[in-house]
Amino acid sequence: MALLREQDRKYTTPEDICAHLGEDYEEYFGAVNPPIYQTSLFGKTERPKDYVYTRVSNPTTEVAERKIAALEGADGAICFASGMGAITAAIMHYIRPACHVICVATTYPDAKRFCRDYLKERAGVSCTLVKGESIEEIEKAIRPETTLIYLESPSTTMLKMQDLEAIANLAKAHNIGTVIDNTYATPLFQNPLKWGIDISIHTVSKYLGGHSDIVGGVICARKELLESIQHNERSMLGSILGPQESYLLIRGMRTLPQRMRKHGENGMIVSRYLENHPMVSKVYYPGGDTYQQKELFEKYMSGTTGLMSLQINGTPQQAQTFVNSLKVFREGVSWGGFESLVSGKTIGMPPERCIEEDVDTNVIRLHVGMENIDTLLKDLEQALDAASKA
Q1: What is the domain extent for residue 162?
Q2: Domain end call among 228, 253, 278
Q3: In this structure, are 378 and 275 located in the same domain?
Q4: What residues have CB less than 8 Å from 86, skipping those under 6 apart?
Q5: pTM for the full predicted model
């Protein structure tokens, strides 16, 4: 765990934070990159802060934690060995035997399964899934034993947003914790803590790392929450991000503002192209011209990314033909790296499953990468043409 220090506060812009914050150049003999402290333990020294064991903390990891905390507007941050490591740690912080959790239905499937199934089997925890689009729906779901409201805004398939300020106020009135997966927006474009959310999570495997070469997660919060999670969930479960991965995360973050501008530019061009194509019936893209939750986007987000979904105007076979015909967009389950990806996991999904997952059928997720925009548009054009003939 790393808390922001007084000397860190001189960096105020995203570019300067990503480039320099948290890096003690005098400690590194003037090196412009921090050392990778590849060690399992630390011998006792007379220094003001003693490190003991890398499962608990590591200097390389703390550089990454401070950068993310500053971007998110948090007191500090804790990095984990995976996004699910961060998600489960944040959730477990609020879990008590036989308690109740409210979870948005469109969240990451493994997070939903952890809340709905795993915790029920192991701790008798009950879970109510909500769409999250109505504060009245969430208020109705609250019980005396509710301890947590778990959000993902925007979600990463249907790109739905929740009203963070209203939910935070509701939760505080009932003494309920709030956790959000903020991976889609990155801390550049959305800061949930300033709206009253307790914990903001990022999967650093996505945009923060940005190069599809690490797996990791991070929790951002106020000091007292971080100290509890550090002492309990991270140290006891042993899910710290290693120094090698932390170094790659630091390196990736140096170009985060520049990369996100490119992802946003390419994403907006692709969304407008798709919105005007006869083979596309709907585009789901926060910040896009036809996005249905414009008021929430304008209130909470300050930029666009490269992740969107589209619905093919045709049969499941045509939707699958579109996916299979893409050549630059590679089929893959993740997103947030330099490369363009496609995922068609809702194609042909039974109607009852669509209702349960709160997704539309024949929805295809696109991650618009950093390739030349004309290359991407040509690839989409030929794949949509193939789908129209299927």
Answers
A1: 2-253
A2: 253
A3: yes
A4: 78, 79, 80, 201, 202, 203, 217, 218, 219
A5: 0.96
